[in-house]
Description:
By secondary structure, this protein is mainly α.
Amino acid sequence: xxxxxxxxxxxxxxxxxxxxxxxxxxxxxxxxxxxxxxxxxxxxxxxxxxxxxxxxxxxxxxxxxxxxxxxxxxxxxxxxxxxxxxxxx
Length: 89
């Protein structure tokens, strides 16, 4: 199965579960974007391997951790940000 076939099947499944008015909105949207200049969809670009993505993420973390402003953040400040989030505030 090609990536395009998978996308078409996923779109069809979503469309089947929409109300008729929403299906019409989707159709109108598709007809509208057909008239726009075509651009490369990032979903179809070559996907990187997990190993490459992990390496890029590690490099990003190193870069961020070397930032002097980030190094000034204390454990208490981090906790003060995380605790309300965990409590749903």
